[in-house]
Amino acid sequence: MRMRTMEIGVGFLMLAGAVALVVLALNISGLSLANQGGGYRVYARFENIGGLTARAKVAMSGVQIGEVTAIRLDPKFLVAEVEMRIRDDVDYLSTDSSAQILTAGLLGEQYIGITPGAEDENLKDGDRIQDTQSALVLEDLVGKFLFNKVSE
Amino acid sequence: MLDWIQSLGHRTLSRLAAFGRAGQLLAQSLIARPSPITMFPLLVQQLYFVGVLSLVIIVVSGGFIGMVLGLQGYTILVDYGSEQAVGQMVALSLVRELAPVVTALLFAGRAGSALTAEIGLMKATEQLASLEMIGVDPLRRVIAPRFWAGFISMPILTVIFSVVGVWGGAIVAVDWLGIYDGSFWANMQHSVDFNDDVLNGIIKSIVFGAVVTWIAVFEGYDCVPTSEGISQATTRTVVFSSLAVLGLDFILTALMFGEL
Questions:
Q1: Does B187 touch chain A (CB under 8 A)?
Q2: Same domain, A53 and A26
Q3: Given a cut of 90, is residue B239 above it in pLDDT?
Q4: Which of B82, B90, B92, B160 would you mutate first to test chain A, the one with the most A CBs within 10 A?
Q5: Is A99 in a helix, a strand, or coil?
Q6: Does one domain contain both A8 and A56?
Q7: ipTM over 0.90
Q8: Structural domain of residue A65, as residue ranges?
Q9: Could you list the residue ranges that cross the membrane (chain B) (predicted)?
Q10: Residue A51 lies in a domain
Q11: CATH number where A96 lies
């Protein structure tokens, strides 16, 4: 009988540990069970990506529609090239959509915001977004502000 | 003068010998694993004493630490207008650092000291010797189940500590201080990475669990079999395992997150 209570207790401990691990994975670290391989790839060139990193989110009107998969330097145009993966069910982005690098909140992370265009044709796998806007770099902003002050 | 040098040499040698005996004990109790059928009931018993009975202190302290983190983080971050980042701060500091370290310290105080005292008393009352007399290896019967129980229960307790702590932080930040629910969890989920943060925290806790139980079991097995010896061994367990946990934590953090 005593053995039975102990075994029940240990069983509860194991169960609590498993539940806690699942909560940690899904609720706290936001690991989604959906496969990461899906979606189609879209490229965009940016003058300056600021603090954008791989796995940053790609959002439209604030709703996440994909994530950044790779960032590299384009050796020909000498700008940053960002590869992102957009969810398959979001297949209605027109070819003249624009991409800009935005910041979530004051100290928040940077992400790519997509603004849809008016063209009838839609973006496909491997297409490139032409109209891009770089990240806001605080130093540039301060520099421009000071330059304007001096010229006044 | 020569006496002093001799005593220094004696102390160094006995320290080294203790290290050697500790290594021997670890190797033997890991290799001399008994058959699963006899091991299992013993392991369940030890898991109950080491794991289940530590659950209350882990849950209570995890909840309060999470609540304090939420409160402190809020009062600092509200000055910068970014109190939404409280969730991310609470979760990262718990998962990476506080949960493994505090759980290991509590574990050393709650379970490690009990292990040392128990094994030390077994030695003092010559139970270990009589086990050997009737042909049962005390390493298999007494030491191995306790070691494995500590090894298994530490990561589980750490994961529970993290979850309860985040939940405590959420209670303070979301329910009492009125941070928007969605941004609290979304910020947290975006910044906590499962492989980098959660798994590294669990690896830390496995290392701490092994070290703390090793020290506890060794101190008990190696103590001077008198009542004074047992009390000294228990003190040494708590002191040594706390120091080992804090020192190892720095090394592991430097390896995992420091990019040294």
A1: yes
A2: no
A3: yes
A4: B160
A5: strand
A6: no
A7: no
A8: 40-136
A9: 47-71, 147-178, 198-217, 238-257
A10: yes
A11: 2.40.30
Give the C-alpha separation, B140 to A37, whole Å: 48
The DSSP letter of residue B142 is I
Asked if residue A152 is part of any domain, the answer here is: no
Burial B48-85 (b: 16+ CB within 10 A, else e): bbbbbebbebbbebbbebbbebbbebbeebeeeebbbb
What are the backbone angles phi and psi of residue A84, rounded to the nearest 5°?
-130, 155
CA distance A31 to chain B (A): 7
Residues A21, A57 within the same domain: no
Contact across the interface for B51 and A13, Cβ inside 8 Å: yes
Separation CA B84–CA B245 (nearest Å): 32
Same domain as A120, residue A64:
yes
Question: Does residue A123 sit within a domain?
Answer: yes
Tokens 């209605």 appear where? Answer: A92
Facing A25 at nearest CB: one of B45, B81, B198: B198
The SS3 call for residue A129 is strand
The residue among A14, A29, A53 with the most chain B CBs within 10 A of its CB, best to mutate, is A29
- The pLDDT value given to residue B36: 66
Contacts of B73 in chain A (CB under 8 A): none
Contacts of B47 in chain A (CB under 8 A): 10, 13
Q: How many domains does chain A contain in total?
A: 2
Residues A64, A114 within the same domain: yes
In a domain, A18, yes or no: yes
Sheet holding A79-86, edge to edge: A127-129, A40-46, A79-86, A63-74, A57-60, A110-115, A98-103, A131-133
Distances (CA, A) of A151 to A92, A101, A138, A139, A143: 46, 30, 20, 18, 12
Structure tokens at B215: 């020290």
Which of A10, A25, A106 comes nearest B82 by C-beta? Answer: A106
Spell out the long-range contacts of B70-75 with Cβ–Cβ below 8 A and sequence spacing 24 or more. Answer: B70/B168, B70/B169, B70/B170, B70/B171, B70/B172, B70/B173, B70/B177, B71/B172, B71/B177, B73/B169, B73/B173, B74/B172, B74/B173, B74/B177, B74/B179
The predicted model scores a pTM of 0.74
pLDDT digits over B39-85, tens only? 788 888 888 888 888 899 999 999 999 999 999 999 998 888 777 78
Contact A29 B48 (CB under 8 A): no
| Residues A130 and A95 both lie in one domain | yes
Average pLDDT over residues A100-128: 82
